[in-house]
Write a structure and sequence with these properties.
The protein has helices at 18-29, 84-87, 91-112, 148-168, 192-201, 221-232, 252-263, 287-293, 301-318; strands at residues 9-13, 33-38, 57-61, 74-77, 116-121, 172-177, 180-181, 206-209, 215-217, 219-220, 242-244, 249-251, 269-272. By secondary structure, the chain is an alpha/beta fold. It has one domain (9-329): Rossmann fold (3-Layer(aba) Sandwich). Bound molecules: nicotinamide-adenine-dinucleotide (NAD) and uridine-5'-diphosphate.
C-alpha cells in the first residue's frame, strides 16, 4: 500500500532538533519531500547531515518568528527549545518563538489552505492536580515563573491554533507531547535522560534534583514520531488536543538507578536543590490517542534507554557523533548546566 506521505511536500519547523530530525527521516522514508526549517538555536546540522545528500530533502536556515514563505502541502511546527535550561536561557525569545512562530505557520497554512500540526507539551498542565493528565484538564500553570515563557507560550500557541480553526476553518492538529528521549539529544541538553546517561557513562555523580520522588513518563522518540505521523493522517474533524506519551510512570530516582544498572556505572548520586515550579508528577492518559490514532508506545524504558546509551557511548568514546562531527566542534552556546 503506498504511504500516505508519498509526493507530499512537508515543512518541518525545528527539523534539525532532536525530535524534528527523526521526523524528517521518517517522512523521507515514507516518500515525502521535506523542507526542514531551523535557526539552529538548539538544533544541529549534525542531526540532519545524513539527509542533506537526499534530493527530496532541503534545509532552510530561518527563524519562525519571521514570516515564512514556502510552497508545501502540510506543516509540522516543532520549532521551540524544549529543555528547561535552553528555554530559560533567553525566555523572551522562547515566548516569541511559540507565539509568533504559531502565528507565522498558521498564516502560511491559511494562505495555502493546508493542515498544520502543533507540537504542544504536557507543560500546558503545569504542576498538575489531576493525575494522570487527560486532555480535558485545564492545568495548573504559574504565569510568572521561570518556566512560564515555555508553558504560557505553548498555551497561547494552542489558543491561536483553535482560533484559526474556528475563525478561518483551518485544518489543525494539536498534540501534547510528554517527556521524550532518545538518540540525538544533545549531550549538554540538560534534560534528565541525557544528563543521567552522559553522567553515568563518564562515571560522574548523577545529579538528582530534589529527593528524586517526582515522576515523569518517558516516551522513546521512535514511538513519538509514529504518533505525530498518525495524528497528521487523522480525519479533518480530529483537531486534538491529543496527548502523546508513554503512560509508564517512573520517579527520577528510579530512572537514575536504571541508568546506572544499564551502563554498569560507578556513578554515585548527588542530590541538588529542586528547581522552582518543577512539576511533582506527570503521566499521560492516552485513551484519545489509542482511540483516534490506534497509537500507543511499543518501546519500554529499559529498551529505549539501551538504545540511547549506545548512541551516547559512541558519541563520547569516539568524541564524534554518528555523522562524523566531533563533539568538541559543537559550539557550547549555553552554559552547560551539568555536563562539563
Ligand atoms: P530541540 O531543542 O532539540 O528542538 C527544537 C528545534 O527548534 C531546534 O532544532 C531549534 O534549533 C529549533 N528552533 C528553536 N527556536 C527556533 C526559532 N525561533 N526558529 C526556528 N527554529 C527554532 O527539542 P525537541 O525535544 O526536539 O522538541 C521539539 C518540539 O517538541 C518542541 O516544540 C518542544 O516544545 C516539543 N516537545 C518536546 C518534548 C520532549 O520531551 N522532547 C516534550 C514536549 C514538547
Ligand atoms: N532532573 C534531575 N536531574 C537532572 C535534570 C533533571 O533530577 O540532571 C529532574 C528535573 O528536576 C525534573 C525531571 O528530572 O523533575 C525532568 O526534568 P527535564 O529537565 O528532563 O524535563 P521537565 O519534565 O522538567 O520539563
Amino acid at each position: 500500500m503506498p504511504s500516505k506521505f508519498v509526493d507530499r511536500r512537508v515543512l518541518v519547523t525545528g527539523g534539525a532538533g532532536f525530535i524534528g530530525s527523526h521526523l524528517c527521516e521518517r517522512l523521507l522514508e515514507q516518500g515525502a519531500e521535506v523542507l526542514c526549517l531551523d535557526n539552529l538555536f538548539t538544533g544541529r546540522k549534525a542531526n540532519i547531515a545524513h539527509l542533506l545528500g537526499n534530493p527530496a530533502f532541503e534545509f532552510l536556515r530561518h527563524d519562525v518568528t519571521i514570516p515564512i514563505n514556502a510552497e508545501v502541502d502540510e506543516v509540522f511546527n516543532l520549532a521551540c527549545p524544549a529543555s528547561p535550561v535552553h528555554y530559560q536561557f533567553d525566555p523572551v525569545q522562547t515566548t516569541k518563538t511559540s507565539v509568533m512562530g504559531a502565528i507565522n505557520v498558521l498564516g502560511l497554512a491559511k494562505r495555502l489552505r493546508i493542515p498544520v500540526l502543533q507540537a504542544s507539551t504536557s507543560e500546558v498542565y503545569g504542576d498538575p492536580q489531576v493525575h494522570p493528565q487527560t486532555e480535558a484538564y485545564w492545568g495548573n500553570v504559574n504565569p510568572i515563573g521561570p518556566r512560564s515563557c515555555y508553558d504560557e507560550g505553548k498555551r497561547c500557541a494552542e489558543t491561536l491554533f483553535f482560533d484559526y480553526h474556528r475563525q478561518h476553518s483551518l485544518a489543525i492538529k494539536v498534540v501534547r507531547i510528554f517527556n521524550t528521549y532518545g538518540p540525538r539529544m544533545h549531550p549538554n541538553d540538560g534534560r534528565v535522560v541525557s544528563n543521567f546517561v552522559v553522567q553515568a557513562l563518564r562515571n560522574q555523580p548523577i545529579t538528582i534534583f530534589g529527593d528524586g520522588s517526582q515522576t515523569r513518563s518517558f516516551c522513546y522518540v521512535d514511538d513519538l514520531v509514529e504518533g505525530l505521523l498518525g495524528m497528521m493522517r487523522t480525519p479533518a474533524e480530529i483537531t486534538g488536543p491529543i496527548n502523546l506519551g508513554n503512560p509508564s510512570e517512573f520517579t527520577v530516582a528510579q530512572l537514575a538507578n536504571l541508568v546506572i544498572e544499564i551502563t554498569n556505572s560507578k556513578s554515585t548520586i548527588d542530590f541538588r536543590p529542586l528547581p522552582q515550579d518543577d512539576p511533582r508528577q506527570r503521566k499521560p492518559d492516552i485513551s484519545l490517542a489509542k482511540h483516534h490514532l490506534g497509537w500507543g508506545p511499543t518501546i519500554n524504558l529499559r529498551q529505549g534507554l539501551k538504545r540511547t546509551v549506545s548512541y551516547f557511548e559512541r558519541l563520547l568514546s569516539l568524541g564524534r557523533s554518528e555523522n562524523g562531527i566531533a563533539e568538541r566542534d559543537i559550539p557550547a552556546k549555553y552554559p552547560a548546566r551539568l555536563v562539563s
